[in-house]
Amino acid sequence: MLFGEGTWWGMDRLMLIRVVVAVLVAAFFALALRSPKLVPTGLQNIGESFIDWVRINIAEEILGKDNGRKFLPIIASIFFATIFLNLTSIIPFLNISSNARIGMPLVMALAAYVTYCWVGISKFGFFGFIKSSIVLPGVPLPVHFLLVPIEFVSTFILRPFTLTVRLMANMLSGHIMLALFFAATQYFIIDQSGIWTLAGLGSLVAAIGFTFFELLVIALQAYIFALLTAVYIDQSIHADSH
């Protein structure tokens, strides 16, 4: 435990990172949008630009203008939580994304999944939504005995699982690679000498290069998570036409 060990509110390092990042992100948008002006400047301009990018390029691109605006809060929340929690993997003295552990990716995947189910059930009813999601029209009756279980597992079990594992695995593997590169740099330069110093410099160059690659992964994983959330919501809205 980092602090509060032995208490119900005790937190380790990754849990503390999650809390700090959540507070900072919430505080930023609260300050940026606390008194919006017709012509945005300063923090308001930055905050609105961030939100507009998600609205235009993810929410409205997949769901259309009306539904995009309706479901923008959940999509934007997932996008910003993912990208800012991912960024801690390359911040000195933090050096790891809390998304590299399954808890937070699972929470966001469940949020996306519950939204997906809630939208479909609200529109079609419980049994209507289940039927529309797993029964393919125009398929011969005997084939349904094979396809219905496959569609059920794919739609209602694998979706939250794949959302969770995709994010966690990418951030965990990135953390491991960066840790190996920088550990090798320290070992070869500090603990060795001679020709091994060159190996340490090579490892340092590789670590810096991989850090920039990790930045791409950080943004891409946030985009994919938010995009799939929008896609699943759209499928729920149009469950009767798949």
From TrEMBL:
Classification via InterPro entries: ATP_synth_F0_asu, ATP_synth_F0_asu_AS, ATP_synth_F0_asu_bact/mt, F0_ATP_A_sf
Residues spanning the signal sequence: none
Membrane topology annotation: Multi-pass membrane protein
Annotated keywords: ATP synthesis, Cell membrane, CF(0), Hydrogen ion transport, Hydrolase, Ion transport, Membrane, Transmembrane, Transmembrane helix, Transport
Principal subcellular localisation of the protein: membrane
Any one of the GO CC terms: proton-transporting ATP synthase complex
GO MF term set: hydrolase activity; proton-transporting ATP synthase activity, rotational mechanism
Gene3D superfamilies with a match to the protein in the record: ATP synthase, F0 complex, subunit A
UniProt cross-references to Pfam families, sorted A to Z: ATP-synt_A
Summary of the function given for this chain in its UniProt record: Key component of the proton channel; it plays a direct role in the translocation of protons across the membrane.
NCBIfam families: ATP_synt_6_or_A
PANTHER family in UniProt: ATP SYNTHASE SUBUNIT A
Protein name from the UniProt record: ATP synthase subunit a
Gene: atpB
